[in-house]
Amino acid sequence: MTNNSTPGVPRTKPAEVRLDELMDAAQKLFIEKGFEATTVSDIVREAKVAKGTFYHYFNAKPEILSALRQRFSRHFVEQVQLAMDACDSDDWPTRLDVWCRASVNAYLAGIELHDLLFHDNYYHGHGNSERDRVLAQIIELLLSGKRHGAWQLERPELSAIILYHGMHGAVDNAMHNGITDRQATAQQLGEDLSLEFRRLLGC
């Protein structure tokens, strides 16, 4: 019997690849059509998989929306952390500057997806684990800077909330006012936020 399969090449895709393809398809369609207008049939057609594959991973459409939120926030934190890790380990004011710039960049780069995932009544009524993931990163930055004498903080958790919502509010306001050059806006807004947050922290 002749085996025509290529040695070392799996005949089926790994589960994590199929899951990513499903999520990518859903993400594309949600942005194009909206969450309510997109059906499970649309998603599996776009992903080129059987409907049973969808229900292997998700019980219903809202679950894939939740998975997309988790993926977005995970990637957001990873991008920002990668940028901060490129700084000198003991240069905490610069790490704060980089957090501002990288956060604005990551938010603006995916703002259409962000608004789809996070600006809805269902999300705001069902916990905020994705927000908590970002807040944990900010709190760690603030506490580490405090330990090394970069700034003094009485309530780091409150300061983290101010930084988190300040960054989001500034980007949302810029989008509301109209942006023609996202890259230039991200650069300027990141610098402006950094100056304001440095004043807040006294550094």
Automatic annotation (TrEMBL):
One of its GO terms (molecular function) is transcription cis-regulatory region binding. Keywords: Coiled coil, DNA-binding. Gene3D superfamilies: Tetracycline Repressor, domain 2. Residues 16-76 form the HTH tetR-type domain. It comes from the Bacteria. Residues 39-58 bind DNA. PANTHER family: HTH-TYPE TRANSCRIPTIONAL REGULATOR RUTR (PTHR30055), NUCLEOID OCCLUSION FACTOR SLMA (PTHR30055:SF183). This is Uncharacterized HTH-type transcriptional regulator yvdT. It comes from Shewanella algae. The gene is yvdT.
